[in-house]
Specification:
- By secondary structure, the protein is an alpha+beta fold.
- The chain has two domains: about 1-170, 2-Layer Sandwich (Uridine Diphospho-n-acetylenolpyruvylglucosamine Reductase, domain 3), CATH 3.30.465.10; about 175-280, CO dehydrogenase flavoprotein, C-terminal domain (Enolase-like, domain 1, 2-Layer Sandwich), CATH 3.30.390.50.
- The protein is about 35% helix and about 25% strand.
- Strand 2 (about 30), helix 2 and strand 3 (about 45-50) form a beta-alpha-beta unit.
- It is globular, with a radius of gyration of 19 Å.
């Protein structure tokens, strides 16, 4: 394990970290919590650039958004009173269901986004709530997670470091629901789905984000379903049609854990459950 690593580097600034990353090239890997490094032991990595001394473990807020440092763990977010105020505590509840307490205290937001595993709950959740990232490339720039996921991530991060995740403070007209389907409570999901719906005073959908991940491909927005929901109230008929539409349009495949056909059926079930959960709230 990590037998090829020659040196563990502790930069004192983002500028120094980025300079090391560029100089060492493919032989270097940025480390947040380190879970991915231990688990995968990537070949050719000789230098680990640890962000421990850069002060990137924080959760802050202003009037419009919540800022989560790249080294912040899921466990820290789960315990945060700031995060707990979002969506009536639903984000806190979802974070508490991911993996085990020990793993939650190692998984970082920056690492989850950077590795972008197709089964990642964190990426699926952040995509559902339209999160953005602060990227350091010598200067700071903000990009949405959707934009980030359209680039060649591994190549992009050869010359960039994720500094921060930003989450908007949504008004009470927005409602969030997220379900992860697993074999055991601590397992990675066989399928996950998130929804964020905004309603007008007549309980009609004004805005919609529907995300399905672990297909076994990465999380993706179900734009056809989002468009279908706009302007509608969540009647049994609408929920039933949304379920059918998801099953018709979702791209799934087999893997060693579950068949694509089963995933397709699951996508409909999760869609119905999410919509019913949200309907109970409004």
């Amino acid at each position: 394990m990590l037998k090829n690593v020659k040196e563990y580097l502790y930069p004192e600034s983002l500028d120094e970290a980025l300079d090391l990353l560029k100089k060492k090239g493919k032989s270097a890997r940025v480390v947040g919590g380190g879970l991915d490094i231990v688990w995968r032991s990537p070949k050719g990595v000789e230098y680990l650039i640890d962000l421990e001394n850069l002060g990137l473990s924080y959760i802050e807020e202003d009037e419009e958004k919540i800022k989560i440092g790249a080294k912040t763990t899921i466990g820290e977010a789960q315990k945060s009173l700031v995060v707990g105020k979002l969506f009536k505590g639903k984000l806190t509840e979802v974070f508490s269901e991911i993996a085990t307490p020990i793993i939650r205290n190692v998984i970082t937001f920056g690492g989850s986004v950077a590795r972008n595993y197709p089964w990642s709950d964190i990426t699926a959740i952040l995509l559902t709530i339209d999160a953005s990232l602060v990227i350091f490339t010598g200067e700071e720039k903000e990009m949405t997670l959707s934009e980030f996921m359209r680039v060649e991530i591994e190549e992009f991060l050869d010359e960039a470091i994720i500094k921060e995740v930003r989450i908007k403070k949504f008004d009470p007209s927005y409602h969030f629901s997220y379900i992860r389907f697993t074999r055991t409570a601590s397992d990675i999901p066989l399928l996950n789905e998130g929804m964020l719906l905004k309603f007008d005073k007549g309980k009609r959908v004004e805005d919609a984000i529907v995300v399905i991940g672990a297909r076994p491909f990465g999380p993706t927005r179900m734009e056809t379903v989002e468009e279908f929901l706009l302007g509608k109230t969540l009647t049994d008929e609408v929920i039933g049609k949304a379920k059918e539409l998801v099953m018709e349009t979702v791209k799934v495949a087999d893997d060693m854990r579950i068949s694509g056909d089963y995933r397709r059926e699951l996508s409909g079930v999760l869609t119905k459950r999410n919509l019913m959960c949200i309907r109970e709230e409004i």
